[in-house]
Structures are given as structure tokens and as C-alpha cells.
Amino acid sequence: MEGGLKNQRAVIVGGGHNGLTAACYLAGAGLEVTVLERLDHTGGAAVSKEVFPGIDVRLSRYAYLVSLLPKKIIEDLGLSLELISRPVSSYTPNTLDGGQSGLLVERPVGANTYESFEQITGDAKEADRWVELYSEIEQVAQVLAPTLLEPLQPKGQLREMVIAKAGERIWQQMFEQPIGVTIKERLAHDLTRGVVATDALIGTFADLASPDLLANKCFLYHLVGNGTGEWLVPRGGMGAVTLALRNKALQRGVKIKTGVEVTGVQSDGNLATITSSDGEFDADWALLNYSTVDDFLATSKPSQPGAQMKVNMVLTSLPKLKSGIDPKIAFGGTFHMNESFDELASAYRAAESGSLPKPAPFETYCHTLADSSILGPRAKEQGLETLTLFGLHTPYELFETDPQAKNKLLEMYFDAFDSVCVGSFREHLALDANGQACVEVASPVDLEEDLRLPRGNIFQGDLSWPWAEPETPNGYQTGQWGVETTERNVLICGSRAKRGGAVSGVGGHNAAHALLSKI
Ligand SMILES: Cc1cc2nc3c(=O)[nH]c(=O)nc-3n(C[C@H](O)[C@H](O)[C@H](O)COP(=O)(O)OP(=O)(O)OC[C@H]3O[C@@H](n4cnc5c(N)ncnc54)[C@H](O)[C@@H]3O)c2cc1C
């Protein structure tokens, strides 16, 4: 068998973290593996970079937090990687009182959380409802997380497993009815409902009340990771995840060719020919880590457009808040702004009708509070902090029709900070070597240009249910891995695979296992 595998050649198109994951598994099994990456570096959306001239800070330029990367992949591959837990889950300034108060959620939930819920909602029971909801969700996650690395099961089987562990009610509420309806059933207050709702919207332009359940899928992926749904900070930034995978791949003898753009993949089912800027490659197997895999799908329907702004900033210090909360706590987890349930609904309505979202919902994350290793010596000495802002409900089309949309949104975000912070937020922005404020903005149009993400969809396409759906186009049969295509020897090994969205390595793992099961 080993000899047989050694004769097998696999070419992986795209050196994103998923392509590298597949490469590590396949090379470990004895295949001859080549990765072709069009950029001059690997990692795709999982990279770190010094973005601002003269500022020695390595920012997680696109993806920033890790939840869905299974411990099993880290252990299987022996990856040298540290993922840091944070004591704060989120803080949400209350925009109704101009940010004089705010909702704090600790991780795990403690006395301060209960006090904060009661202060904001005036309802001593709201925190209990919250705890009950998340404990049921965690039980669902414990059942589903391990299945992401296995061949697909029928929906009915997963349903039975989930109900046995977590009960019928949560199955119904997460998988059968719109998540917006569920959130309203389970929680009573606009602000607490909004914090939950954001997990159904990050990276997905969706109506929380829609029966298409697109938002439910997004919600699931934000809460299923490793059976806890916790989002962790990768020490050294997101580039450290890719570096660990790249190092492992090289150690296992994988050839990584950067600066090679693939222009075509053809296959007769046995031999694949990959055409590229560096000539033609023949292979027994082609694995596709890039987004435009449609040529190999029986049918395909267009995905939702990307609808998020990614803003990278470096600050001289964190702003103080009007509520008086310590900024290290407020910015220590996810800082939600304009994200109450009603605000999210109103922003969606505006964006859907072609206007800028009003109010403009966003959330921020401060890497340096959890991990200062991304700061160089000068930045450390200056006490710089990083802030990543993720804007919601900003669909691709907005930026096509209005060239000023990016600037307008940025101003809206800064004004929103000013409404809840002491003094001017803009004054906290560090200046680069050219005297420019350290702010880098990427709209969905920019993401399409930089990373070839179709219409800037951060997951390359719509997220999918984690079970076989043979009744839907490309929905996959029970027993398949959700990576198969119309050709036996061409497999999807990235975000476009079923269960593949996010920095998870799941697409890469599953493509490698599907391939190995065919030899
Ligand atoms: C702004 C942003 C923020 C995000 N935040 C998070 C987050 O915090 N946590 C999280 O889990 N996920 C996040 N995501 C999603 C996550 O980054 C992606 O789902 C993940 O990176 C997908 O990995 P991948 O390896 O499948 O594909 P990609 O990262 O898209 O990599 C594909 C690779 O293929 C290469 N390629 C494309 N076309 C060709 C070609 N023709 N020839 C050769 N090479 C080619 C690309 O250059 C790229 O390197 C975010 C994404 C974005 C864009």
C-alpha cells in the first residue's frame, strides 16, 4: 500500500491554510504533493502582515480568531500552535443611554455578567435565559463537532443524536425555524438578543427571519467549534496558523510553489492536467483550494455576496468609555456597536434596499490585549494596541455603486465610537512613517481583488448544513465527504467544501481523507 501511495502525485491548487492542511495529510500518507499558489506567499485569508510603513506590528490582515480548527487536526499534524482563551466574551455599549451603560458577558459567565444583565435589562431572569440557551447550544456543539471530520451522515441520524443529548426544543430552534424567531423566543431584551444574533450574521448577508435558514447555518458555524464554540486568539496572529502548517508540509516533503497562477484544470477521471503560469502539471489527483470550483460541480447556484468591512487599525492607546468600564475589559472580548436586535434588523433593511446600513453595525477585537507578541520592539516600547473592526450588512453592491461608500462607512464607525467613548476616537489612531493614520479598510470588492473571494464572500461561498443533502444540487450523499466533484480524481479542499468555511482545516482534512479512501 505504502509503495502504491508513493507513486501517487497530488497537485493542490491554492496554498490557503486548507490546501496546506490537505498537503500535510497526503504527504504524511506517502503521496508526492505539490502546492501551487498564485500569490508570493501561502495562507490565503489566514495571514499576518506589517501593513503600515514604519509600524512594526504584524496584523492578522483578514481572518483573526480561531474556533473551528479541530484539536484533532492540531494533534494529528503535531502543529506548533498556541490558541489563547480570553476572560471576556463581549461588551456592548447601550446606545439608548449614549453608552452610559453596557452589557458585559464574561467567559465563563460570572457574577459581573449577572449584575450587568440586570442593570441593562431590568430583568433578573434574562441572564438565566442566556445561560440556559448557551448551555443547550454547547450540547449541540459537542455532538456535531466531531462529525465535521467524518463522512457525511443523514440529517435524521444527526437529529436523533442531537435530540438525545440536548433535547428536541433546541434542535427545532437551531435547525428548523429561522434563528431570529428562536432568539426572540429565548430572550426578552433587544440588546441581549442582538449580541446573540451577530453570530448568525458575521460573514453572511442574511435576514434573521428568513425561512431560507442561511443565518442559522452561519450561527451554527460560529458556535460549534471544538464542541465549545469558543473563539481563541492565535499567538503570533493568524499568520502563525499558516506558518505551522507550512512548516509541517515542508518537513513532510511537500513542494510549495508560490507565484504560480493556475489557469485551468482538466481531468479524464484518472489523470488531471493543471495548466499554470509555470507550465503544465500532470497529477493523479487535483485538489482545489480556490473558490472557483464550479466547473467541477454538477450544478451551482450563486452564493450570497460578501457583506462585511474589515478595518485594521493601530492605536496609541485604547479609548476610555463613558460607562467607566475599564477599556481592557470592554475591548478584551468582542466589542459590539449598533448591534441590538432592532438595530441589526434596521441596518439589514437599509442595506438590502441599496443604502448604507443605518445605524452601521460593527464589532471590534483587540489582539494585543491577549497577545502582545505581534508587536515589534518599537511598537512595544510605544505601548501600541491593535484594533480590528468588522462591519456588518455592507454588501458588495454598495461599493460598486458608490465609490465613497468605504469612506462614508468609516466615518460612521468613528462617529459611533465617539458616541460611547470619552473624547475623540480618531485621536487614538497611531500615525505611520508618512504621517498617515494607521487605518486599512477592505470592502467586499477589495477582498475579491486581493483574495479572489467571489463578490467578497469571506467563506468563498454560502455555508452549508453539516449533513448529507442528496436532494439538493451538490448536496452530497451519505458516506461522502462533501468534497467530491464530477470527476473522481478532482476534489475540493477549501472553504467551498461542505463544512469548509472559516479557518478550520476541515476542507483540507476531508479532501485528504476522501482521496485516501479511494486508493
Ligand atoms: C476579512 C476576513 C475575515 C475573516 N475572519 C475570520 C476569522 O476571524 N476566523 C475564521 O475562522 N475565519 C475567518 N474568515 C474566513 C476564513 O479566513 C476563510 O474561510 C479561510 O481562510 C478559507 O481558507 P482556504 O484555505 O479554504 O481558502 P483561502 O484562504 O481563500 O485560500 C485560497 C488560496 O488559493 C489561492 N488561489 C486562488 N486562485 C488561485 C489560482 N488560480 N492559482 C493558484 N492559487 C490560487 C489564493 O491566493 C489563496 O492563497 C475571514 C475571512 C476574511 C476574508
Walk me through what this model shows.
By secondary structure, the chain is of the alpha/beta class. The chain has helices at residues 2-6, 17-28, 71-77, 111-121, 126-144, 155-166, 168-176, 179-186, 190-198, 214-223, 239-251, 327-330, 341-352, 367-370, 377-382, 396-401, 405-420, 444-451, 506-518; strands at residues 9-13, 32-37, 48-50, 58-60, 83-84, 88-93, 102-106, 233-234, 255-258, 262-267, 272-276, 279-283, 285-288, 309-315, 334-337, 362-365, 385-391, 439-442, 490-492. It has a domain at 2-44 and 73-82 and 238-302 and 465-518: FAD/NAD(P)-binding domain (3-Layer(bba) Sandwich), CATH 3.50.50.60. It has 19 helices and 19 strands. The strands form five sheets. It has a seven-stranded mixed β-sheet, with helices on both faces. α9 (190-198) packs across α13. The model has no long low-confidence stretch (mean pLDDT 96). The site of flavin-adenine dinucleotide has 36 residues, from α2, β2 and α18. Flavin-adenine dinucleotide (FAD) is lined by residues 13-19, 36-39, 44-46, 62-65, 68, 261-262, 289-290, 310, 447, 451-452, 458-460, 494-495, 501-503, 507.
Main pleated-sheet profile: 7 strands, mixed
What is the CATH topology classification name of the domain at 2-44 and 73-82 and 238-302 and 465-518?
FAD/NAD(P)-binding domain
Strand content: 15-25%
The overall strand count is 19
**Quaternary state of the chains:** single chain
Number of helices: 19
CATH class of the domain at 2-44 and 73-82 and 238-302 and 465-518: Alpha Beta
What hetero molecules are in the model?
Answer: flavin-adenine dinucleotide
Low-confidence stretches: none
Q: Mind telling me the CATH superfamily name of the domain at 2-44 and 73-82 and 238-302 and 465-518?
A: FAD/NAD(P)-binding domain
Helical amount among residues, as a percent range? Answer: 25-40%
